């Protein structure tokens, strides 16, 4: 995972760009989990946030609840996986974000 916060993909509307965090490699008891048994990660770091959707009148944008740098929990099968510049990203709708993880 890169440390740069600038991502070359700019989301539109209520979309966000997330970089999935790596799944745990071992269990709490120290057993190593093979790649075939790992679950798809559901946590990620928000790298970019779209401007939000327009309100019903079309006069102003409705801001999103998440911001760049947040660690979020998202729907297991939500979003679209994108590979750009050798990095894996996930483009999600803000509705696919279930929670912000505070550490």
TrEMBL record:
Location within or outside the cell: Cytoplasm
Major localization class: cytoplasm
CDD domains given in the database record: cpn10
Protein keywords: Chaperone, Cytoplasm
A Pfam family recorded for this sequence: Cpn10
UniProt-listed InterPro entries: Chaperonin_GroES, Chaperonin_GroES_sf, Chaprnonin_Cpn10_CS, GroES-like_sf
Quaternary structure and partners: Heptamer of 7 subunits arranged in a ring. Interacts with the chaperonin GroEL.
Task performed by this protein: Together with the chaperonin GroEL, plays an essential role in assisting protein folding. The GroEL-GroES system forms a nano-cage that allows encapsulation of the non-native substrate proteins and provides a physical environment optimized to promote and accelerate protein folding. GroES binds to the apical surface of the GroEL ring, thereby capping the opening of the GroEL channel.
Family indicated by similarity: Belongs to the GroES chaperonin family.
Name recorded for this polypeptide: Co-chaperonin GroES
Species assigned in the record: Nonomuraea antimicrobica
């Amino acid at each position: 995972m890169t440390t740069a916060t600038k991502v070359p993909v700019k989301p539109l509307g209520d979309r966000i760009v997330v970089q999935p965090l790596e799944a745990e490699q071992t269990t709490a008891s120290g057993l190593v989990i093979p790649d075939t048994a790992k679950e798809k990660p559901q946590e990620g770091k928000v790298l970019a946030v779209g401007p939000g959707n327009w309100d019903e009148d079309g006069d102003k944008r409705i801001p999103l609840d998440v911001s760049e740098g947040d660690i979020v929990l998202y729907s297991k099968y939500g979003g679209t996986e994108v590979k750009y510049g050798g990095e894996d990203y996930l483009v999600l709708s803000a509705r696919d974000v279930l929670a912000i993880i505070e550490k």
